[in-house]
């Protein structure tokens, strides 16, 4: 990866985030005209691509798995802000918006990002290899978080419907933070080697860690370039979520006019917000760095629950209304099948194109039944 400083400060990756942020500020209060909405959509796409570039610069500087962690946490923090803003705005789906968005993020990461990464990686390199120990621990953490945060509310009796009581929500929030913190400590300190890209033989069997210093990549960027990219990454992500918020009423109107379920809004917003991670994971897969792609996917799924649920729980102190977190029956079935297939995918430590197809079919099934429940 080249150093942004080499190309100078007038690179498009420097200009686009700033232009997107200026457009966000200029159109925040008045954006009803179609030309404005088109400009917002174009700026959103540009900000997504710029975010991917700057995330990769930072990741190259700090190394893995810190790079994947930075992007996952950054996107999730901004996603939380978007959920809170939409919940404050109220509406018919406000009580389920957090659940629908988090579940959509789970399906996008566990099936969409994982599926396309495995498929593209296996098509280009015949087999893709990764560390089953590290990836397995990430998947296990995601499963426990999903059950505690999204499945159990439908089986408790202290509160009506698919909600937690205040004391239950407090416990689940603390448990989520503990799980997320424990995993981050494992990934970045105690067992960092389990989350680094691996080398493999012709049969896809892991032979050791990939030598990042002799892989043909450019030297890491300078501290100055990395700090510049970190700042522009934040600007890009703020722009992505802010512009998505501007487009959300248009999306809601389109969903309503088409007679689609309100959950589709959460799916669309989650797709927009997770676009930087999706593109970054795909790029890693093409370079035979599927371990990085899986780090991004499972790390994002983990952060979507481990950070979002506690934050929403705190926000609910000041918001009126109910917070529905429990999944519906169809969602539980999709989650259960996803967990089973993910376990079989991760366990061998290597994957063929078939595994990618399986996950993508599950993702397509989720999208179809979100539109046609």
TrEMBL record:
InterPro entries to which the protein is assigned, alphabetical: Alkaline_pH_Ca-Antiporter, NaCa_Exmemb
UniProt entry keywords in alphabetical sequence: Membrane, Transmembrane, Transmembrane helix
Organism domain of life: Bacteria
UniProt topology in membrane: Multi-pass membrane protein
GO CC term (a single one): plasma membrane
Record-linked Pfam families: Na_Ca_ex (PF01699)
Localisation: Membrane
One MF annotation (Gene Ontology) recorded for this entry: potassium:proton antiporter activity
Residue spans crossing the bilayer: 12-30, 36-54, 66-90, 102-123, 135-155, 167-186, 225-248, 254-275, 296-318, 330-347, 354-372
Residue ranges annotated for the Sodium/calcium exchanger membrane region domain, each copy included: 35-188, 229-371
PANTHER family documented for this protein: SODIUM-POTASSIUM/PROTON ANTIPORTER CHAA (PTHR37958), SODIUM-POTASSIUM_PROTON ANTIPORTER CHAA (PTHR37958:SF1)
Protein name: Ca2+:H+ antiporter
């Amino acid at each position: 990866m080249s150093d942004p400083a080499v190309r100078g400060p007038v690179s498009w990756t420097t200009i686009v985030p700033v232009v997107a942020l200026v457009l966000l500020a200029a159109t925040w209060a008045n954006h009803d005209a179609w030309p404005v909405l088109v400009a917002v959509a174009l700026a959103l796409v540009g900000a997504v691509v710029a975010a991917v570039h700057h995330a990769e610069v930072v990741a190259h500087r700090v190394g893995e798995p810190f790079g994947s962690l930075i992007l996952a946490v950054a996107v999730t923090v901004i996603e939380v802000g978007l959920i809170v803003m939409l919940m404050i705005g109220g509406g018919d789906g406000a009580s389920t918006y957090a659940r629908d968005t988090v579940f959509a993020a789970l399906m996008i990461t566990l099936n969409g990002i994982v599926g396309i990464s495995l498929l593209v990686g296996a098509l280009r390199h015949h087999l893709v290899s990764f560390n089953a120990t590290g990836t397995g621990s990430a998947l296990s953490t995601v499963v426990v978080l999903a059950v505690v945060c999204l499945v159990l509310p439908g089986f408790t009796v202290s509160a009506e419907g698919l909600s937690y009581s205040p004391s239950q929500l407090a416990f689940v929030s603390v448990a989520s933070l503990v799980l997320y913190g424990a995993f981050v400590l494992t990934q970045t300190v105690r067992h960092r080697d389990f989350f680094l890209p691996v080398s493999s033989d012709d049969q896809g069997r892991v032979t050791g860690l990939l030598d990042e210093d002799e892989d043909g990549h450019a030297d890491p960027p300078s501290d100055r370039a990395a700090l510049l990219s970190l700042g522009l990454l934040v600007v890009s992500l703020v722009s992505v979520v802010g512009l998505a918020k501007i487009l959300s009423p248009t999306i809601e109107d389109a969903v309503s006019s088409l007679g689609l379920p309100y959950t589709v809004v959460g799916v669309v917003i989650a797709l927009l917000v997770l676009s930087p991670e999706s593109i970054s994971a795909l790029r890693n897969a093409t370079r035979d760095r599927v371990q990085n792609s899986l780090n991004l996917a499972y790390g994002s799924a983990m952060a979507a629950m481990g950070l979002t649920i506690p934050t929403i729980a705190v926000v609910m102190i000041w918001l009126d209304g109910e917070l529905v977190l429990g999944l519906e029956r169809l969602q539980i079935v999709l989650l259960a099948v996803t967990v089973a297939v993910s376990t079989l995918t991760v366990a061998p430590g290597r994957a063929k194109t078939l595994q990618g197809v399986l996950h993508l079919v599950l993702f397509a099934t989720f999208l179809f039944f979100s539109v046609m429940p």
